[in-house]
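SAMPLE LOG
Freezer: B-3
Tube label: C17
Construct: single chain, 114 aa
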Amino acid sequence: MLAPELSEHEFNPPEFTPLAEVDGPTIVRPKGERSRCPGCGEELRVAAKYVGVPVACKKCGEPMTAGTSEHRVAYLADCPHCQKEIRVGIKYVGQRVQCKFCEGELTVSERAAS
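STRUCTURE (predicted):
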């Protein structure tokens, strides 16, 4: 019940405006990695198909198993925004990072166990 000095008035709520969807970073799987040779210390590019496979360093010939965690330095992935290859340091795996070429946000996932 209203006090006599007050009157009813209409309330017109504002028109509904949907919010834009907030996209999180795209999750990307590594296509390869960079591993350090235990013999000469050279950083080697290792394609995903060779991870876990015995290989030899192309510089010194030292045998090693490609892609083992003690030799892994970084993952290689293609940016889903600009399609350029980026190198993501091990400490950034699972975290939101930006492509250095287009500044698109992405997260590089940990490689599945081989």
